[in-house]
Design goal:
Layout: H1 2-78, H2 81-118, H3 126-136
């Protein structure tokens, strides 16, 4: 009897073990396929991003070149010697005005800085006094 039972169990358990092993292998295979699909999708996404970036850079360079050409054309058409001289005169006048204001305020600013630096309050705060007392052991 024992031999018979053992055989039956072996025959019954072997298909279960085989089915379980097959199921585990099928799950592992599915997981491997899923990992491959995910990695392929990531690689494809990376390539799409790189291609979009290359296209964007090319478009930016094209627009930049067009705008530069437009700027140069308009600046050549409108820039004359008289305009340049007028602008230079205005700039020189503004610089002279700023220098005059600087020189006019220089002594007042120096005096104010000297006053602030030399005006030192020698009074100790209550916290500093207490700290000194604690250090001396009297508090």
């Amino acid at each position: 009897r024992r031999g018979g039972r053992g055989r039956r169990r072996r025959q019954v358990t072997r298909p279960r073990e085989t089915m379980a092993t097959a199921g585990i292998q099928e799950l592992m295979s599915a997981e491997t396929r899923a990992s491959q699909i995910v990695s392929e999708a990531r690689a494809a996404r990376g390539e799409r991003i790189k291609e979009a970036k290359r296209e964007a850079v090319a478009l930016i360079e094209k627009v930049r070149a067009e705008k530069q050409a437009d700027f140069e054309a308009s600046s050549q058409a409108t820039q004359t010697k008289d305009e340049f001289e007028e602008l230079k005169g205005k700039t020189d006048a503004e610089i002279a005005d700023m220098e005059a204001k600087f020189n006019g305020n220089k002594s007042g600013v120096i005096n104010m800085i000297v006053k602030v630096v030399t005006n030192v309050d020698l009074k100790l705060s209550d916290t500093r006094k207490l700290q000194g007392q604690r250090a001396a052991g009297t508090a």
